[in-house]
Amino acid sequence: MEQKRVIQQGESFPLGSTVCPDGVNFSLFSKNSTLVELLLFDHAGDAKPATVITLDPRWNRTYHYWHVFVPGVQDGQIYGYRAFGPSEPQRGLRFDPSKLLLDPYGKAMAVPDRYSRISASVPGDNCATAMKSIVVDPTRYDWEGDIPLKRPFAKTVIYELHVRGFTRHPSSGLSHETRGTYRGLIDKIPYLQDLGVTAVELLPLFQFDEQDAPWGLVNYWGYSPISFFVPHHGYSSRNDHLGPMDEFRDMVKALHRAGIEIILDVVFNHTAEGDHAGPTLCYRGLENAVYYMLEEDRSRYADYTGTGNTLNANQPIVRRLILDSLHYWVETMHVDGFRFDLASVLSRDERGRPLANPPILWDIESDPVLAGTKLIAEAWDAAGLYQVGSFIGDSWKEWNGQFRDDVRRFVRGDRGSVPRVARRVFGSPDLYGGQEREPEKSINFITCHDGFTINDLVSYNEKHNHANREDNRDGTDVNLSWNCGVEGPTDDPAIERLRNRQVKNFLTLTLMSVGVPILLMGDEVRRTQCGNNNAYCQDNEISWFDWTRLEKHADVHRFTRQLLSVRARRDLMRSDNDRSLNEILRDARLALHGVTLHSPDLTDESHSIAMAATTPNGDFLIHLIFNAYWEQLAFELPGAEKAEQGWRRLIDTGLASPDDICDGPDAPFVPGDNYLAQPRSVVVLFALRASNAE
Questions:
Q1: Fewer CB in 10 Å around end: N or C, the chain?
Q2: Whole-angstrom Cα distance, residue 586 to residue 564?
Q3: What confidence tens digit (pLDDT) does each residue in 128-178 have?
Q4: Cβ within 8 Å of residue 568, ≥6 positions away
Q5: Which is it for strands 674-677 and 633-636: parallel, antiparallel or unpaired?
Q6: Looking at the domain that runs over 153-273+311-567, which CATH code has it been given?
Q7: CATH code for 3-134?
Q8: Contacts of 172 (CB under 8 A, 6+ apart)
Q9: pLDDT, tens digit, 9 for 90 and up, residues 492-527
Q10: Which helix (H) or strand (E) holds 88?
Q11: Positions in the chain whose pLDDT score sits under 50
Q12: pTM of the predicted model as reported, rounded to 2 decimal places
């Protein structure tokens, strides 16, 4: 096939590769390149392209966009680019025509068996070992009427999971082919339904570089994106080029049918290309100074992410890329929301200075395509910018790191933690109350992928990250954990009972607090990472969900299921029957108590507090007792004279299963005017006015 008979001028829009009836249009941004070649391959691992199409800057370039139409090319064609231009790092220019470059707007990717990150980092041609883009037509899929669910945040409970880790363990009961895949997650949807969560938040699944990790290990978490449009191919059980895209959409469709939303953990703050010594995979070789923030020494990258580079998110070309990516995942892939990793990075300008009104964040906030989409910010970055309580916009919700830290301190028994935990339980009004925003602004979590699991939080005083091969230097040293007397696993039944109780305390505080709760995958069965608090490079049993723990820790699993049911259920009361317990509590009148009514002890030496909440119409009363003290305490109870039969015990983590949590209609009545709270326990009592008594 001769080049003169093949190529046509093409169009600058849309960017990427677009399938047309008689061929494919290719379009690419590269401002400072002097020449661009489009390379077509027959196979992912080919060392030489089957066809090289040279784009004429006089004919195939409009402004900063290179474009060409190639008749006869079809869906499934493998391709890449070479960009020629100055290699002048001191000016921020890093063109290298020996490197095959991915299409920034590519929708599918081919990964050769011999893929090498190293070959993209050293001089020389790397065609044989480079990832390549694939032409696909994303419109060829039958959604069967599926649409995003748009569930209100007030009724949302999020479960953070890793697509691979959720089903990769042999105990998952799945076939070898489907373990650790989108297909495998589909098979476990009944488990998620039974647990009672309403949304899954998936760790990054934009195509990432698994080799971006210490030698001999892999990048497991996925915080190393290569593309902002391609679902990670390693999570697909299919081998065809449409496999990752269509299997992902099968998963979305199945989750929606089960009433479960899908939220993607997205990384728009850095890429897998790393620092000045990193590989040339895509953006670096197309327009380095546009895509990345650079230091005054233009040969070095600004690093506000701790990964070696920082995406230049408020540069117009990058802003368009981010918005186009979000549109694609909402419109074409039907996701319900996004959790933005290190979102505060997106508030910095091209020189790294924080902006009062960051353009990209307001673009996302005001975008009509994204209206109704869940937007969650990790409101800090790796360079010290901390914006919890002050992140911009009305639609953005925030991971509340202060909730995590204050609840951990209180449960551990730290001095001075009582006043702060009281604020966290009722929606962090000190952070959000003055902004006239709903309490669901606060995304409440105790554990997440980054740090200890809930089991390890009550089993280790120190991190144990030696498997990461960084001499235990990586990961935070501030875990606010307590091992209950023994470091790591133990056969001591007393310590195990205490750990179980502490786990239930954390779960209750998370799920009974006003806001939007997140549970970490496996916390409901005390999943352990053996004390590793930074398992980003552990694609093994350290990170995987061990399904045998479902039986081993059946009592914690049952407690979590019941707790989620309590949060969601409406049969606790006959009025307000369309509102969740979270919505009822956020509008309730609040009174603070101590062991004596109306006398809360908020001093540094206090380790307990009680809170009484009453609905505005007085129909429903709830009394919360938090005793982090190491001895039992008797708490006076408010009068429930308006109730037909007085207080009923819904939760008491100090009791053994199954008495630790009850169904509302079956909750036993509490005799007398006092309640004896066991050491290190959480108690939830409720009462109904006579007209509403069940």
A1: N
A2: 17
A3: 999 999 999 999 999 999 999 999 999 999 999 999 999 999 999 999 999
A4: 155, 157, 196, 198, 580, 581
A5: antiparallel
A6: 3.20.20.80
A7: 2.60.40.10
A8: 166, 179, 184, 188, 545, 547
A9: 999 999 999 999 999 999 999 999 999 999 999 999
A10: strand 87-88
A11: 1-5, 574-575, 692-694
A12: 0.96
Provide the annotated active-site residues: 341, 378
- The pLDDT, as a whole number, for residue 439 is 72
Rounded distance between C-alpha atoms, residue 587 and residue 577, angstroms: 15
- Please give the pLDDT value at position 693: 44
Q: Which CATH architecture has domain 587-692?
A: Sandwich (2.60)
Question: Where in the chain are the domains?
Answer: 3-134, 153-273+311-567, 587-692
Residue type, 464: H
User: 254 by DSSP, 3-state: which?
Assistant: helix
- Separation between Cα atoms, residue 168 and residue 611, nearest integer Å: 43
Please say whether the beta carbons of 236 and 243 come within 8 A.
yes
Q: Are 519 and 159 in contact (CB under 8 A)?
A: yes
Is it true that 153-273+311-567 and 587-692 share their CATH fold? no
Question: What are the DSSP calls for 582-650, one per residue?
Answer: HHHHHTSEEEEE-SSTT----STT--EEEEEEE-TTSSEEEEEEEE-SSS-EEEE----TTBSS--EEE
Q: Per this entry, what is the length of the chain? A: 694
